[in-house]
């Protein structure tokens, strides 16, 4: 059987054939006002609520019953027509672990396809001859709407929306193991015209580079869509993949600096890790120093006045959450930290005796190049959810931090 799940927003969950999930037990209650509880039982079937009248979907195009159950403590039985019968005890029925034997694409009726379903529990009884009879005086029970997904589709729900550049391709939605294997030998077996550096695509960043190359070469774009299976009616997957790759996250440990005034005389320096700015822990005060080669080097000086540091930190955090991150910049040159700045100053003072030296000759932290679009998100405020901090950081555009 296809491993298929039924997800609902009510108490009726249908689990897969291969796995039992303990997140919810499926239970339906059927109450009657008769004195023949032991003779009655619920009859379960999948119905399409969107149709008028309500349609029971009992079998797939292959003739297989769509609703089934595994053997559990519940003494259920199939009626031979695609419905399940479960016992009623003291006016209450406990559903077994249910699963659907096929996926949505095969659920048709009179040429129509349906994507939303409900579980119907109707009261029935058996006649003396064993025939199953519907008890019309007892109103049927209906679950809320649910959809039926294969295991592969469920895996897509857990795929990254903001993938890291070093993630494997299977972290991306619509890319499974088979597609990832094709991309490993994309030049040799599928797209011989791509450059050698793109001959084997294994990571998110390599796929992003391949798609950027395809943007400049239409024939390569068509070939790549073929390899990914994202042409024609599946072109929406191609558009989704492009949008996700545009949100690729890169390692970014460059310093950030915030200036309180346009003259850039007062401010604070902050460290960052993977684009997350440590707003709660400023490193010190910034001071730009010209090097021997004429370039600027940022010295980080210790803050002596604790009250001043506190006021500046609060102002820097407030500015970060304003549109455009007013006053914030990414430090793109070398940085000299606290004690190192003192060493550099001493080296400069001694240069008249021992000969010319460069203030940052041995104490400078160089910063490697990163992507042109890393995530500019600070660490979360205390008590605030991370997504709130990320949303605030993304507000506005055109600021120095971007």
Plain-language structure description:
Helix 4 (204-216) crosses helix 5 (218-228). Helix content is 24%, strand content 23%. It has 3 domains: 4-153, Immunoglobulin-like (Sandwich); 159-245, no CATH class; 256-394, no CATH class. With 402 residues, it is α+β, with helices and mostly antiparallel strands. Strands 3, 4, 6, 7, 12, 13 and 14 form a 7-stranded antiparallel β-sheet that branches.
Describe this protein with a few key phrases:
23% strand, elongated, 402 residues, Immunoglobulin-like, 3 domains, alpha+beta, disordered C terminus, seven-stranded mixed sheet, 9 helices, seven-stranded antiparallel sheet
Task: List the topology elements.
Layout: E1 4-8, E2 27-28, E3 40-48, E4 55-57, E5 67-69, E6 77-78, E7 84-85, E8 93-94, E9 98-100, E10 108-109, E11 112-113, E12 118-126, E13 132-134, E14 141-142, E15 146-150, H1 151-157, H2 177-184, H3 186-190, H4 204-216, H5 218-228, H6 235-245, E16 256-259, E17 267-273, E18 276-290, E19 296-301, H7 306-320, E20 328-330, E21 335-336, H8 338-354, E22 377-378, H9 386-394
Parallel strand pairs: 18-22, 19-21
Antiparallel strand pairs: 1-15, 2-8, 3-4, 3-7, 3-12, 5-9, 6-7, 10-11, 12-13, 12-14, 16-17, 16-20, 17-18, 18-19
Helix pairs in contact: 4-5
């Amino acid at each position: 059987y296809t491993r298929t799940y039924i997800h609902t927003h009510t108490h009726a969950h249908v689990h897969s054939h291969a796995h039992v999930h303990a997140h919810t037990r499926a239970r339906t209650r059927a109450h009657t006002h008769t004195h023949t509880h032991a003779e009655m039982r619920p009859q379960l079937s999948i119905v399409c609520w969107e149709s008028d009248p309500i349609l029971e979907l009992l079998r797939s195009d292959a003739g297989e019953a769509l609703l089934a159950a595994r053997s559990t403590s519940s003494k259920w039985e199939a009626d031979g027509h695609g419905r399940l019968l479960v016992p009623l005890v003291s006016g209450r029925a406990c559903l077994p672990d249910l699963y659907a034997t096929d996926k949505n694409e095969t659920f048709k009726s009179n040429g129509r396809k349906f994507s939303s379903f409900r579980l119907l529990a109707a009261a029935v009884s058996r006649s003396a001859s064993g025939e199953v009879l519907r008890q019309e005086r007892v109103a049927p029970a209906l679950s809320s709407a649910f959809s039926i997904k294969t295991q592969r589709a469920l895996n897509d729900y857990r795929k990254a929306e903001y993938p890291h550049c070093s993630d494997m391709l299977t972290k991306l939605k619509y890319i499974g193991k088979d597609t990832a294997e094709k991309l490993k030998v994309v030049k040799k077996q599928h797209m011989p015209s791509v450059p050698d550096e793109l001959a084997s695509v294994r990571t998110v960043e390599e796929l992003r580079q391949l798609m950027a190359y395809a943007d400049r070469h239409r024939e390569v774009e068509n070939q790549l869509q073929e390899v990914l299976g994202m042409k024609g009616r599946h072109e929406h997957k191609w558009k989704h993949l492009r949008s996700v790759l545009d949100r690729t996250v890169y390692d970014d440990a460059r310093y950030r600096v915030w200036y309180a005034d346009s003259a850039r005389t007062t401010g604070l320096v902050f460290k960052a890790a993977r684009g997350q700015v440590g707003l709660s822990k400023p490193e010190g005060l910034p001071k730009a120093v010209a090097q021997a080669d004429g370039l600027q080097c940022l010295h980080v000086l210790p803050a002596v006045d604790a009250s001043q540091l506190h006021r500046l930190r609060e102002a820097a955090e407030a500015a970060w959450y304003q549109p455009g991150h007013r006053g914030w910049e990414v430090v793109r040159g070398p940085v000299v930290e606290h004690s190192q700045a003192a060493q550099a100053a001493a080296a400069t003072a001694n240069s008249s005796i021992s000969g010319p030296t460069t203030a940052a000759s041995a104490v400078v932290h160089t910063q490697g190049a990163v992507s042109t679009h890393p995530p500019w998100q600070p660490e979360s405020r205390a008590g605030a959810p991370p997504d709130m901090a990320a949303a605030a950081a993304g507000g506005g555009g055109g600021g120095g931090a971007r």
